Structure formats: C-alpha cells, structure tokens
C-alpha cells in the first residue's frame, strides 16, 4: 500500500488535486488497517482459515485492479 500511496498516487493525480488524492488513499489505508484485525477476530473464531482465504482473495482483487491502472509511469520523467 505504501508503494501505491507514496510513488504511484502523486504521479497519477494532477497537481491541483494531488494532496486530496494522496489524502484519500491514506484514509482508505488507515480504515483498512483498523478494520482488518476486527474482521480477522470475528471471522477467525467462526472459520479458522477464513482470514487467510480473505487475504488471498484481496491479493487477487488487487492484482486485477492493478492490471487496469490507466497510467504507466515507467520510463517517464516526473515533475
């Protein structure tokens, strides 16, 4: 998440809204960080392998979303 937050996000958003985009990405990171232990405790008590399966599904979703990112920043000069 930190690679996306500090490397990709500033290059994707135009300068006038760059701070807002980075702030929203940071907010979503914090919310997920707070929700993950609570959900793992609740789901883990009912189904012990549930958190591991959920993490695997989230990694697959992140991979698919990454494949659809609109901007390739490799080889481009940042401002």
Descriptive terms for the model:
single chain, 79 residues, mainly alpha, 0% strand, elongated
Question: What does the secondary structure layout of this molecule look like, with pairings?
Answer:
Elements: H1 2-12, H2 18-46, H3 50-67
Helix pairs in contact: 1-2
Summarize the structure in words.
With 79 residues, this protein is mostly helical. It has one domain (2-67). Helix content is 73%, strand content 0%. The chain is built from three helices and no strands. The chain has helices at residues 2-12, 18-46, 50-67. Helix 1 packs antiparallel against helix 2 (18-46). The two termini are 22 Å apart. 0% of the residues are buried.
